[in-house]
Amino acid sequence: SALDRAPLAxxxxxxxxxxxxxxxxSATTLHVGTPALCRPSAARSHPLLTVQTSSASAPTAxxxxxxxxxxxxxxxxxxxxxxxxxxxxxxxxDLRGGSGNGYAxxxxxxxxxxxxxxxxxxxxxxxxxxTVRTAxxxxxxxxxxxxxxxRFTVSRLRLCLDVRFCVDNDLRYAYWTLEQPSWVLSDxxxxxxxxxxxxxxxxxxxxxxxxxxxxxVVPNFVVRLVSRLGLQxxxxxVGSLDRGQGSPIKPRA
Length: 253
Fold this sequence. Notes:
eight-stranded antiparallel sheet, alpha+beta, 5 helices, 253 residues
């Protein structure tokens, strides 16, 4: 059917904004206080992840756990820290059961306020993220103090995503939730966080974490193919701030 064929177009341009269509697996929903790489089998030993499995007695829809009021970032390994020191981006994702989570992190030489100003300018995402075509604030039906809603059109499929952001400027932390499910995404949450590095003066660590629950219509093999590119598409513009250019460069889609 046309609906089955539609996700194939994402191979040319995976959805950018956080909501990367990257995550697959079996029947377990990964709930992430702050999304981090972890397989369900290892969840009990991972401080950032709990796993909830659907049961016949509780046929509720799968949902990502909402981020908390403060950022709790994944624990980096020594090999990850070496990559960051070498100027490389570190990214991880877990693909399982039509749901999953992942993160991308990079260290850049930049003023934290400059980086944060760009990240928190959600209306400018169509100028920052390659696969975001339009970005516009809108007035939601449900007004929640301290939050703002933005409508993004992403990828060549012109997929519409309504996202609610909650911003803490003091912590340089912005987390989001998906307001309305689509034929691709049943749910998504995640966050941006800009972390000044006391042991690397002049540098900041930029975190991008996301969790998703995909709609059943998305073929698993398509999701696997685009998973590697989703995080890259959402974050690749951040590196341009490292060169002190004053404004980020939008990568090509």
